[in-house]
Amino acid sequence: MKPQANSRRPEKLSAIQEIDSIIANSDYCFVLNYGGLTVASLADLRARLAKSQSALKVVKNTYLAKALETKGWTGLEAVLNGPTALVTGSGDPNPLVAGKGISILKEHGIEVTEHVLKKECDALNEVFFHYITRKKPFVVMKYAMTLDGKIAAHTGNSKWVTGEEARYNVQADRGRYSSIMVGTGTVLKDDPLLTCRIPGGRNPVRIICDSSLRTPLDSRIAATIPEARTIIATCCNDDDLIRTYSEAGFEIIKVSKTDGHPDLNELMDRLYELKIDSILLEGGGRLNWSALKAGIVDKVQAYIAPKLFGGENARTPVEGQGVADPAEAFRLKDISIRHFGEDLLIEGYTVCLQE
Question: Where are the alpha helices (DSSP H) in the chain?
Answer without folding.
Answer: 10-23, 42-51, 61-79, 100-107, 118-123, 126-134, 164-176, 184-190, 220-223, 239-247, 264-273, 285-294
